[in-house]
Amino acid sequence: METIFAQATAMGRAGVCVVRLSGPRAFAIAEDISGTLPEARMVALRKIRDREGGLIDTGLVVAFPGPHSFTGEDIVELHLHGSIAVVRAVLAVLARFDGARLAEPGEFTRRALENERLDLTQVEGLADLIDAETEAQRKQALRVVSGHLGELVEGWRADLIRAAALLEATIDFADEDVPVDVTPEVEALLARVQAQLQAEIAGSHVAERIRTGFEVAILGAPNAGKSTLLNALAGREAAITSEIAGTTRDVIEVRMDLGGLPVTLLDTAGLRESDDAIEAIGVSRALARADEADVRVFLSENPDDLIARPRDGDIVLLPKADLRQDGAGISGKTGQGVESLIAQLQNVLASRTSAVGVATHARHRSVMETAINGLLQADLVLQRGPDQYELAAEELRHVIRALEGLIGRVDVEALLDEIFASFCLGK
To answer: What average pLDDT does this structure show over 29-36?
Structure first.
């Protein structure tokens, strides 16, 4: 296997830059350009030189012997000054060594997967951790990176292997008297796995929303102050505001951190019947996006008069409090009621995250749904009696294989290129 290298920190000028090497020649190459390596996981100050002995930079060197490293191979990290010229010179020197080449995006993590330092769900969690923008996303990604989903899968797999083994033992001794009826234990194992899978599937929808972001749509009649409220929530002029009704023709999106949760605010076209073809398209888009949103905020004196109707969990507020004599409602112009709305949204979304699962991707949910269908089929076959145990055991083997695909043991080659394409160079 070739030794790979890459800049592990962001491109461009910085205070410090990390260049990482991994592979069979990592130590030898690092010694050639920096001298004697420090002891494992110890840091040493070294002069980094080119092949002719010319000084490039002075930096820190750290060595991580395999297999107890991130990739499972020998790794060396060079912590250099973050000059573009320094990094370019070091990478050029490394490229001159035989058996060494620039890493592809995500190749370090891919080697960690191939060397069983990470399972596939941990790889996905690592990608989510790199992309995390809010505290909730960070915490959720860390749970996945820590291997919680992999541990669940291993538990399910162990129970199903046990169930299949019990059935196969019955098949093997079909011509003899088997002293114990295995059916109750097998049924109990299948029921336990199925219940846990269903719980994870239910929680995966919320987990996926934390990963991708909740959506909050602001709805109301034309000129109800929706764009002004969006700007107040965003803290900037994200949408054009005007006294002219129907200014907003398309859905305007603003992403923000709301109490640690990722939220995309949607400013929509005013809800009304219109003969204007362009405005009608805007209203149609507003209704479609609002229907998919997690929470809708209605600005209306009477929401029943609007094309869309509030549903459980939506928030209904009186608009333009600054123009009302009683001062009730919310006003994006003066800020009245904005903090209260933020608190309401935080409470609504936080209550939904209480049922969050460890599975965070649609792929996870799809595999678990496949597994449940397999368990239901196995249970149906099991009810037909010992003559059908061989078929039930085969169904369980299919379920086990599906779960092994979830953590990357089998049938995932087609997924890898897509997953690792999202990684940056040097990770």
So the answer is: 93
Please say if the pLDDT value at position 248 is more than 80.
Answer: no
Rounded to an integer, the average pLDDT of 235-258 is: 62
Whether the CB-CB separation of 23 and 3 falls below 8 Å is answered with: yes
Phi then psi for residue 145, to 5 deg, are -60, -35
Domains and CATH numbers, the chain: 3-114 (3.30.1360.120), 135-209+361-407 (1.20.120.430), 213-354 (3.40.50.300)
C-beta neighbour count of 210 within 10 angstroms: 24
Share of the chain above pLDDT 90, in %: 34
Q: What is the 3-state secondary structure (H, E, C) of the chain?
A: CCEEEEECCCCCCCCEEEEEEECCCHHHHHHHHHCCCCCCCCEEEEEEECCCCCEEEEEEEEEECCCCCCCCCCEEEEEEECCHHHHHHHHHHHHCCCCEEECCCCHHHHHHHHCCCCCHHHHHHHHHHHHCCCHHHHHHHHHHHCCHHHHHHHHHHHHHHHHHHHHHHHHHCCCCCCCCCCHHHHHHHHHHHHHHHHHHHHHHHHHHHHHHCEEEEEEECCCCCHHHHHHHHHCCCCCCCCCCCCCCCCCEEEEEEECCEEEEEEECCCCCCCCCHHHHHHHHHHHHHHHHCCEEEEECCCHHHCCCCCCCCCEEECCCHHHCCCCCCCCCCCCCCHHHHHHHHHHHHHHHHHHCCCCCCHHHHHHHHHHHHHHHHHHHHHCCCHHHHHHHHHHHHHHHHHHHHHCCCCCCHHHHHHHHCCCCCCC
**pLDDT tens track for 329-355:** 888 888 888 889 889 888 888 888 877
> What pLDDT, in 10s, does the model give residues 186-227?
899 999 999 999 999 988 888 888 888 898 988 887 777 788
The whole-angstrom separation of Cα 207 and Cα 124 is 13
Name residues whose C-beta falls within 8 Å of residue 260's C-beta, 6 or more positions apart in sequence. Answer: 134, 135, 136
Higher pLDDT pick, 270 / 74: 74
Query: HSE-up of 125 (CA within 13 Å, CB side)?
Result: 25
Residue 108 confidence (pLDDT) above 80? yes
* Cβ atoms of residues 26 and 3 within 8 Å: yes
